[in-house]
Design goal:
single chain; 78 residues; mainly alpha; rod-shaped
Length: 78
């Protein structure tokens, strides 16, 4: 095997595994977002403090944004 073939093989393996990982992450994030949405919908439709929800939305949005941890490194964003 020549050095350039080695480099090409390693590059091909890297590219194919990154594509697989990106797809897996996309599927996982889609499922995560679906569950988050389901919880929000459940809260909006049946929440005890439903009447005051709209007035509290900006503060709640900020609290949610501060509590969510980014799980996708920048180099994997699609």
């Amino acid at each position: 095997m020549k050095y350039q073939e080695l480099i090409n093989d390693i590059s091909n393996i890297n590219n194919s595994t990154l594509t697989t990982v990106e797809r897996a992450i996309n599927k996982t994030l889609t499922i995560r977002n679906w569950f988050i949405d389901a919880y929000i919908i459940e809260y909006e439709q049946n929440g005890v403090d439903r009447a005051a929800y709209g007035t509290q939305l900006p503060a709640r949005s900020q609290m949610l944004a501060e509590s969510v941890v980014t799980i996708v490194p920048n180099h994997l964003e699609v």
